[in-house]
Amino acid sequence: MAVTANEAGFRPASRIATLGVSEILQIGARASAMKRAGAPVIILGAGEPDFDTPDFIKDSAADAMRRGQTKYTALDGTPELKAAIADKFARENGLALSVDQITVATGAKQILFNAMMATLDAGDEVIIPTPYWTSYSDIVRICEGEPVLIECHADAGFRLQAAQLEAAITPKTRWVMLNSPSNPSGAAYSAVHYRPLLDVLLRHPHVWLMVDDMYEHIVYDDFDFVTPAALEPKLADRTLTVNGVSKAYAMTGWRIGYAGGPAALIKAMAVVQSQATSCPSSISQAAALAALTGPQDFLAERTQSFKERRDLVVSALNAIDGITCRVPEGAFYTFAHCGGLLGRTTPNGVVIESDRAFCAYLLDEAHVAVVPGSAFGLSPFFRISYATSKEELGEALRRITQACAKLT
Questions:
Q1: What is the domain range of residue 36?
Q2: How many structural domains are present in the chain?
Protein backbone atom coordinates (compact mmCIF):
# COMPACT_ATOMS: atom_id res chain seq x y z
CA MET A 1 0.00 0.00 0.00
CA ALA A 2 1.37 3.42 -1.00
CA VAL A 3 2.48 5.73 1.79
CA THR A 4 0.95 9.21 1.59
CA ALA A 5 2.93 12.37 2.19
CA ASN A 6 1.22 12.91 5.56
CA GLU A 7 1.90 9.34 6.67
CA ALA A 8 5.54 9.77 5.80
CA GLY A 9 5.70 12.88 7.97
CA PHE A 10 6.09 15.31 5.12
CA ARG A 11 6.63 18.90 6.26
CA PRO A 12 6.68 21.71 3.69
CA ALA A 13 9.24 24.45 4.04
CA SER A 14 7.94 27.44 5.98
CA ARG A 15 8.55 29.68 2.98
CA ILE A 16 5.72 27.96 1.07
CA ALA A 17 3.55 26.71 3.92
CA THR A 18 1.04 29.55 3.52
CA LEU A 19 1.09 29.55 -0.29
CA GLY A 20 -1.01 27.56 -2.71
CA VAL A 21 -1.42 26.94 -6.40
CA SER A 22 -2.70 30.02 -8.23
CA GLU A 23 -6.47 30.42 -7.94
CA ILE A 24 -6.55 31.08 -11.68
CA LEU A 25 -5.11 27.63 -12.29
CA GLN A 26 -7.47 26.06 -9.76
CA ILE A 27 -10.52 27.58 -11.47
CA GLY A 28 -9.18 26.53 -14.86
CA ALA A 29 -8.63 22.97 -13.64
CA ARG A 30 -12.17 22.70 -12.26
CA ALA A 31 -13.65 24.19 -15.45
CA SER A 32 -11.61 21.83 -17.60
CA ALA A 33 -12.74 18.83 -15.55
CA MET A 34 -16.37 19.90 -16.01
CA LYS A 35 -15.77 20.26 -19.73
CA ARG A 36 -14.24 16.78 -19.95
CA ALA A 37 -17.31 15.44 -18.16
CA GLY A 38 -19.51 16.88 -20.89
CA ALA A 39 -20.56 20.27 -19.54
CA PRO A 40 -20.52 23.05 -22.19
CA VAL A 41 -18.07 25.20 -20.22
CA ILE A 42 -16.58 28.37 -21.68
CA ILE A 43 -13.29 29.25 -19.97
CA LEU A 44 -12.50 32.97 -19.80
CA GLY A 45 -9.81 32.65 -17.17
CA ALA A 46 -6.54 32.02 -18.97
CA GLY A 47 -4.22 34.90 -19.82
CA GLU A 48 -3.25 33.40 -23.15
CA PRO A 49 -3.86 34.69 -26.70
CA ASP A 50 -6.01 32.43 -28.82
CA PHE A 51 -3.87 33.27 -31.86
CA ASP A 52 -1.19 30.81 -32.91
CA THR A 53 2.51 31.62 -32.95
CA PRO A 54 3.23 33.14 -36.39
CA ASP A 55 4.61 30.67 -38.92
CA PHE A 56 7.82 32.58 -39.54
CA ILE A 57 8.69 32.17 -35.86
CA LYS A 58 7.93 28.44 -35.88
CA ASP A 59 9.92 28.03 -39.10
CA SER A 60 12.93 29.74 -37.50
CA ALA A 61 12.77 27.35 -34.57
CA ALA A 62 12.65 24.36 -36.94
CA ASP A 63 15.61 25.73 -38.89
CA ALA A 64 17.54 26.16 -35.65
CA MET A 65 16.97 22.50 -34.79
CA ARG A 66 18.08 21.40 -38.24
CA ARG A 67 21.25 23.46 -37.82
CA GLY A 68 21.98 21.62 -34.59
CA GLN A 69 21.21 24.48 -32.20
CA THR A 70 20.04 22.00 -29.59
CA LYS A 71 22.81 22.39 -27.01
CA TYR A 72 23.22 24.47 -23.89
CA THR A 73 23.56 28.17 -24.56
CA ALA A 74 25.12 30.97 -22.57
CA LEU A 75 23.62 31.08 -19.07
CA ASP A 76 21.17 33.97 -19.47
CA GLY A 77 20.73 34.27 -23.21
CA THR A 78 22.58 33.82 -26.48
CA PRO A 79 24.65 36.81 -27.65
CA GLU A 80 22.43 37.06 -30.73
CA LEU A 81 19.20 37.20 -28.72
CA LYS A 82 20.63 39.66 -26.22
CA ALA A 83 21.71 41.93 -29.07
CA ALA A 84 18.23 41.74 -30.57
CA ILE A 85 16.68 42.61 -27.21
CA ALA A 86 19.04 45.57 -26.83
CA ASP A 87 18.02 46.72 -30.33
CA LYS A 88 14.34 46.31 -29.41
CA PHE A 89 14.75 48.38 -26.25
CA ALA A 90 16.51 51.12 -28.23
CA ARG A 91 14.11 51.07 -31.18
CA GLU A 92 10.80 50.81 -29.34
CA ASN A 93 11.47 52.13 -25.85
CA GLY A 94 14.29 54.64 -26.09
CA LEU A 95 16.52 52.66 -23.73
CA ALA A 96 20.25 52.37 -24.42
CA LEU A 97 21.35 49.06 -22.93
CA SER A 98 24.45 46.96 -23.52
CA VAL A 99 24.33 43.17 -23.65
CA ASP A 100 25.65 42.91 -20.08
CA GLN A 101 22.51 44.76 -19.02
CA ILE A 102 20.22 42.16 -20.62
CA THR A 103 19.01 38.86 -19.19
CA VAL A 104 16.89 36.09 -20.71
CA ALA A 105 15.03 33.46 -18.69
CA THR A 106 12.38 30.77 -18.91
CA GLY A 107 9.47 33.20 -18.94
CA ALA A 108 9.02 36.60 -17.36
CA LYS A 109 7.96 34.91 -14.12
CA GLN A 110 11.48 33.56 -13.74
CA ILE A 111 12.83 37.06 -14.38
CA LEU A 112 10.76 38.35 -11.46
CA PHE A 113 11.81 35.45 -9.26
CA ASN A 114 15.50 35.86 -10.10
CA ALA A 115 15.37 39.58 -9.30
CA MET A 116 13.65 39.08 -5.97
CA MET A 117 15.83 36.16 -4.94
CA ALA A 118 18.94 38.14 -5.86
CA THR A 119 17.99 41.27 -3.92
CA LEU A 120 15.62 40.59 -1.02
CA ASP A 121 16.70 39.89 2.52
CA ALA A 122 14.24 38.74 5.16
CA GLY A 123 11.83 41.53 5.97
CA ASP A 124 12.57 43.69 2.95
CA GLU A 125 9.38 45.29 1.65
CA VAL A 126 8.03 45.34 -1.89
CA ILE A 127 5.24 47.76 -2.75
CA ILE A 128 2.63 46.17 -5.04
CA PRO A 129 -0.45 48.07 -6.25
CA THR A 130 -3.62 46.01 -6.34
CA PRO A 131 -5.22 44.59 -8.37
CA TYR A 132 -2.05 42.73 -9.26
CA TRP A 133 -0.96 39.61 -11.07
CA THR A 134 -1.29 36.84 -8.50
CA SER A 135 2.33 35.67 -8.63
CA TYR A 136 3.84 39.00 -7.59
CA SER A 137 3.15 38.74 -3.87
CA ASP A 138 3.86 35.01 -3.63
CA ILE A 139 7.24 35.41 -5.31
CA VAL A 140 8.10 38.12 -2.78
CA ARG A 141 7.06 35.84 0.10
CA ILE A 142 9.04 32.87 -1.20
CA CYS A 143 12.08 35.15 -1.28
CA GLU A 144 11.39 36.11 2.38
CA GLY A 145 10.26 39.62 1.54
CA GLU A 146 7.10 41.36 2.72
CA PRO A 147 4.58 42.43 0.07
CA VAL A 148 3.01 45.80 0.85
CA LEU A 149 -0.31 45.84 -1.00
CA ILE A 150 -1.93 49.17 -1.92
CA GLU A 151 -5.51 49.19 -3.16
CA CYS A 152 -5.99 51.14 -6.39
CA HIS A 153 -9.63 51.63 -7.25
CA ALA A 154 -11.56 52.08 -10.46
CA ASP A 155 -12.20 55.79 -9.85
CA ALA A 156 -8.42 56.28 -10.05
CA GLY A 157 -8.19 54.09 -13.14
CA PHE A 158 -6.77 51.22 -11.04
CA ARG A 159 -3.52 53.23 -10.98
CA LEU A 160 -1.24 53.87 -8.03
CA GLN A 161 -1.27 57.49 -6.88
CA ALA A 162 1.78 59.45 -5.76
CA ALA A 163 0.40 60.09 -2.28
CA GLN A 164 -0.22 56.38 -1.79
CA LEU A 165 3.32 55.53 -2.87
CA GLU A 166 4.86 58.19 -0.65
CA ALA A 167 2.92 56.94 2.37
CA ALA A 168 3.91 53.31 1.77
CA ILE A 169 7.68 53.82 1.52
CA THR A 170 9.69 52.93 4.63
CA PRO A 171 13.39 52.36 5.29
CA LYS A 172 12.70 48.66 4.56
CA THR A 173 11.26 49.29 1.09
CA ARG A 174 13.40 47.63 -1.57
CA TRP A 175 11.19 47.59 -4.65
CA VAL A 176 8.05 49.04 -6.20
CA MET A 177 6.38 46.81 -8.81
CA LEU A 178 4.33 48.40 -11.62
CA ASN A 179 2.56 46.63 -14.47
CA SER A 180 1.34 48.56 -17.51
CA PRO A 181 -0.89 47.59 -19.22
CA SER A 182 -2.08 45.62 -16.24
CA ASN A 183 -3.07 42.06 -15.67
CA PRO A 184 -5.85 41.91 -14.43
CA SER A 185 -7.33 45.39 -14.94
CA GLY A 186 -6.06 46.36 -18.39
CA ALA A 187 -5.22 49.78 -16.93
CA ALA A 188 -2.16 51.52 -18.32
CA TYR A 189 0.07 54.37 -17.18
CA SER A 190 0.75 57.20 -19.59
CA ALA A 191 3.67 59.59 -19.10
CA VAL A 192 1.30 61.89 -17.22
CA HIS A 193 0.36 59.09 -14.82
CA TYR A 194 3.94 57.93 -14.32
CA ARG A 195 5.49 61.35 -13.70
CA PRO A 196 4.26 61.92 -10.12
CA LEU A 197 5.30 58.39 -9.13
CA LEU A 198 8.77 58.82 -10.57
CA ASP A 199 9.15 62.11 -8.72
CA VAL A 200 8.42 60.25 -5.49
CA LEU A 201 11.05 57.64 -6.30
CA LEU A 202 13.62 60.34 -7.06
CA ARG A 203 13.23 61.44 -3.44
CA HIS A 204 13.88 57.90 -2.14
CA PRO A 205 17.16 56.64 -3.62
CA HIS A 206 17.05 53.35 -1.71
CA VAL A 207 13.92 52.21 -3.56
CA TRP A 208 14.20 50.30 -6.85
CA LEU A 209 11.57 50.06 -9.55
CA MET A 210 10.47 46.93 -11.37
CA VAL A 211 8.19 47.51 -14.37
CA ASP A 212 6.35 44.69 -16.11
CA ASP A 213 5.78 45.75 -19.74
CA MET A 214 4.55 42.37 -20.95
CA TYR A 215 1.42 43.79 -22.64
CA GLU A 216 3.26 46.71 -24.23
CA HIS A 217 2.03 46.02 -27.77
CA ILE A 218 -1.61 45.43 -26.79
CA VAL A 219 -2.91 48.97 -26.25
CA TYR A 220 -5.96 50.70 -27.68
CA ASP A 221 -7.44 54.04 -28.70
CA ASP A 222 -4.08 55.59 -29.64
CA PHE A 223 -2.71 55.10 -26.12
CA ASP A 224 0.94 56.23 -26.08
CA PHE A 225 2.92 53.51 -24.32
CA VAL A 226 6.00 54.62 -22.37
CA THR A 227 8.34 52.82 -20.01
CA PRO A 228 9.62 54.60 -16.87
CA ALA A 229 13.38 54.24 -17.42
CA ALA A 230 13.02 56.17 -20.67
CA LEU A 231 10.77 58.77 -19.12
CA GLU A 232 13.15 59.41 -16.21
CA PRO A 233 16.77 58.48 -17.05
CA LYS A 234 17.86 59.36 -13.49
CA LEU A 235 16.07 56.19 -12.37
CA ALA A 236 17.61 53.92 -15.01
CA ASP A 237 20.35 52.73 -12.66
CA ARG A 238 17.72 51.31 -10.27
CA THR A 239 15.04 50.15 -12.69
CA LEU A 240 14.47 46.65 -14.07
CA THR A 241 12.36 46.68 -17.24
CA VAL A 242 10.69 43.29 -17.73
CA ASN A 243 9.17 42.03 -20.97
CA GLY A 244 8.83 38.88 -23.05
CA VAL A 245 7.40 37.30 -26.16
CA SER A 246 4.48 35.41 -24.60
CA LYS A 247 1.57 37.78 -25.14
CA ALA A 248 2.24 39.96 -28.19
CA TYR A 249 3.75 37.12 -30.22
CA ALA A 250 1.41 34.39 -28.88
CA MET A 251 4.37 32.39 -27.56
CA THR A 252 3.20 31.45 -24.07
CA GLY A 253 4.40 27.87 -24.34
CA TRP A 254 7.84 28.83 -25.63
CA ARG A 255 8.65 30.26 -22.18
CA ILE A 256 10.94 33.19 -22.93
CA GLY A 257 11.05 36.35 -20.85
CA TYR A 258 13.72 39.02 -20.79
CA ALA A 259 14.68 42.18 -18.96
CA GLY A 260 17.05 45.10 -19.05
CA GLY A 261 18.60 46.82 -16.06
CA PRO A 262 21.80 47.73 -14.21
CA ALA A 263 24.66 45.36 -14.96
CA ALA A 264 25.26 44.58 -11.27
CA LEU A 265 21.65 43.47 -10.85
CA ILE A 266 21.74 41.41 -14.06
CA LYS A 267 24.91 39.68 -12.85
CA ALA A 268 23.32 38.85 -9.49
CA MET A 269 20.22 37.47 -11.23
CA ALA A 270 22.48 35.24 -13.34
CA VAL A 271 23.85 33.69 -10.14
CA VAL A 272 20.31 32.70 -9.13
CA GLN A 273 19.51 31.34 -12.57
CA SER A 274 22.74 29.34 -12.68
CA GLN A 275 21.57 27.32 -9.70
CA ALA A 276 17.94 27.00 -10.83
CA THR A 277 17.32 26.33 -14.52
CA SER A 278 20.59 27.35 -16.15
CA CYS A 279 19.96 28.55 -19.72
CA PRO A 280 16.51 28.85 -21.33
CA SER A 281 15.67 26.48 -24.18
CA SER A 282 17.99 27.00 -27.13
CA ILE A 283 15.11 26.42 -29.56
CA SER A 284 12.85 28.90 -27.79
CA GLN A 285 15.62 31.47 -27.86
CA ALA A 286 15.97 31.02 -31.61
CA ALA A 287 12.21 31.53 -31.94
CA ALA A 288 12.33 34.66 -29.78
CA LEU A 289 15.15 36.04 -31.92
CA ALA A 290 12.96 35.62 -34.99
CA ALA A 291 10.02 37.25 -33.21
CA LEU A 292 11.97 40.36 -32.30
CA THR A 293 13.76 40.74 -35.64
CA GLY A 294 11.08 39.55 -38.07
CA PRO A 295 7.91 41.15 -39.45
CA GLN A 296 5.92 43.14 -36.89
CA ASP A 297 2.87 44.13 -38.95
CA PHE A 298 0.67 41.36 -37.50
CA LEU A 299 0.88 42.95 -34.04
CA ALA A 300 -1.42 45.82 -35.02
CA GLU A 301 -3.84 43.44 -36.74
CA ARG A 302 -4.13 41.27 -33.65
CA THR A 303 -4.49 44.27 -31.37
CA GLN A 304 -7.38 45.52 -33.49
CA SER A 305 -9.06 42.14 -33.04
CA PHE A 306 -8.56 42.35 -29.28
CA LYS A 307 -10.02 45.86 -29.27
CA GLU A 308 -13.19 44.65 -30.98
CA ARG A 309 -13.53 41.95 -28.36
CA ARG A 310 -12.87 44.43 -25.56
CA ASP A 311 -15.66 46.68 -26.80
CA LEU A 312 -18.03 43.72 -27.05
CA VAL A 313 -17.33 42.59 -23.47
CA VAL A 314 -17.40 46.05 -21.88
CA SER A 315 -20.69 46.93 -23.57
CA ALA A 316 -22.38 43.68 -22.55
CA LEU A 317 -21.18 43.83 -18.94
CA ASN A 318 -22.29 47.43 -18.46
CA ALA A 319 -25.76 46.45 -19.68
CA ILE A 320 -26.17 44.03 -16.75
CA ASP A 321 -27.88 45.43 -13.65
CA GLY A 322 -25.42 45.29 -10.75
CA ILE A 323 -22.23 45.23 -12.85
CA THR A 324 -20.08 48.14 -13.97
CA CYS A 325 -17.00 47.78 -16.13
CA ARG A 326 -14.29 50.35 -16.82
CA VAL A 327 -12.90 50.50 -20.37
CA PRO A 328 -9.30 49.18 -20.19
CA GLU A 329 -6.49 50.86 -22.07
CA GLY A 330 -4.67 47.65 -22.91
CA ALA A 331 -4.00 43.93 -22.37
CA PHE A 332 -6.88 41.53 -23.01
CA TYR A 333 -8.79 41.63 -19.74
CA THR A 334 -11.78 43.40 -18.27
CA PHE A 335 -12.00 43.88 -14.52
CA ALA A 336 -15.64 44.50 -13.73
CA HIS A 337 -17.22 45.54 -10.44
CA CYS A 338 -19.93 43.15 -9.24
CA GLY A 339 -20.69 44.80 -5.92
CA GLY A 340 -24.24 45.53 -7.06
CA LEU A 341 -24.94 41.80 -7.10
CA LEU A 342 -23.75 41.05 -3.58
CA GLY A 343 -26.58 40.17 -1.24
CA ARG A 344 -28.72 38.78 -4.02
CA THR A 345 -29.93 35.18 -3.96
CA THR A 346 -29.44 32.41 -6.50
CA PRO A 347 -32.32 30.21 -7.72
CA ASN A 348 -31.08 27.61 -5.23
CA GLY A 349 -31.43 30.00 -2.32
CA VAL A 350 -27.73 30.76 -1.88
CA VAL A 351 -26.84 34.37 -1.04
CA ILE A 352 -24.03 35.86 -3.16
CA GLU A 353 -21.77 37.22 -0.44
CA SER A 354 -18.52 37.81 -2.32
CA ASP A 355 -16.97 38.02 -5.76
CA ARG A 356 -15.63 34.51 -5.25
CA ALA A 357 -19.17 33.26 -4.62
CA PHE A 358 -20.41 35.12 -7.70
CA CYS A 359 -17.75 33.51 -9.91
CA ALA A 360 -18.59 30.08 -8.49
CA TYR A 361 -22.24 30.75 -9.31
CA LEU A 362 -21.39 31.67 -12.91
CA LEU A 363 -19.44 28.45 -13.32
CA ASP A 364 -22.19 26.28 -11.84
CA GLU A 365 -25.19 28.07 -13.33
CA ALA A 366 -23.89 29.47 -16.63
CA HIS A 367 -20.92 27.17 -17.24
CA VAL A 368 -18.68 30.21 -17.68
CA ALA A 369 -15.33 30.32 -15.86
CA VAL A 370 -14.06 33.75 -14.77
CA VAL A 371 -11.70 34.76 -11.95
CA PRO A 372 -12.73 36.69 -8.81
CA GLY A 373 -11.03 39.97 -8.04
CA SER A 374 -10.05 38.61 -4.62
CA ALA A 375 -7.46 36.46 -6.40
CA PHE A 376 -5.85 39.71 -7.57
CA GLY A 377 -6.08 41.52 -4.27
CA LEU A 378 -9.17 43.67 -4.91
CA SER A 379 -12.85 42.87 -4.32
CA PRO A 380 -15.64 42.78 -5.37
CA PHE A 381 -14.56 42.43 -8.99
CA PHE A 382 -14.12 39.68 -11.54
CA ARG A 383 -11.73 39.30 -14.44
CA ILE A 384 -12.65 38.17 -17.91
CA SER A 385 -9.94 37.25 -20.39
CA TYR A 386 -11.31 38.11 -23.82
CA ALA A 387 -8.50 36.35 -25.66
CA THR A 388 -10.96 34.05 -27.37
CA SER A 389 -13.26 34.22 -30.38
CA LYS A 390 -16.06 36.80 -30.59
CA GLU A 391 -18.51 33.93 -31.09
CA GLU A 392 -17.50 32.27 -27.84
CA LEU A 393 -17.42 35.61 -26.03
CA GLY A 394 -20.91 36.40 -27.29
CA GLU A 395 -22.26 33.10 -26.00
CA ALA A 396 -20.49 33.53 -22.65
CA LEU A 397 -21.88 37.03 -22.21
CA ARG A 398 -25.38 35.82 -23.07
CA ARG A 399 -25.09 33.16 -20.36
CA ILE A 400 -23.68 35.64 -17.81
CA THR A 401 -26.52 38.04 -18.53
CA GLN A 402 -29.12 35.30 -18.05
CA ALA A 403 -27.47 34.04 -14.86
CA CYS A 404 -27.43 37.54 -13.37
CA ALA A 405 -31.09 38.04 -14.28
CA LYS A 406 -31.96 34.97 -12.18
CA LEU A 407 -30.55 36.57 -9.03
CA THR A 408 -33.19 38.10 -6.78
A1: 23-48+298-405
A2: 2
